[in-house]
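Good morning C.,

I know you're traveling, so I'll keep this short. The sequence:
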Amino acid sequence: MKKIGIDDLDDWMGPASVKRPVGSALDAEQLAMNYYELAPGESFAFGYHAHDDQEELFYVLDGTATFETADGDVTVEAGEVIRFAPGEFQQGRNNTDDRVRALAVGAPGDSTDVTILKDCAACDDRTTQRIEPTEDGDELVTICVDCGAETGRFD
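The tokens, ready to paste straight into the viewer:
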């Protein structure tokens, strides 16, 4: 058994104000679990994405999250849970003026096979992306795989 406090965990760099690696802090082997806090306009993910080998669940604790999906936007309010199957594209955002707090769970936990799509101004299209740290390591950037343009910067 292992027990932790969410507030005792360090934040990870990314598109959310707060992302704390609950599962890895608890040495979870079969699933990933992250705690998020999204300020207005922030997102859970670096872009519209799908994990080819992982299902994801998002439990909204406070606020309202809006998920872009292939079937259109889906609103998830406090006390509700949404599930995405492996290979199902989605991106959750906070489109409100209030903060969103949520837990995200994914299984298997060691998934690395993810496709990220993001708008690239240089290509004038939504393109496949990769994530890289900046030279100083203080931020992460999304890079268009097609043209090499930087499409986003996250600390």
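Safe travels,
E.
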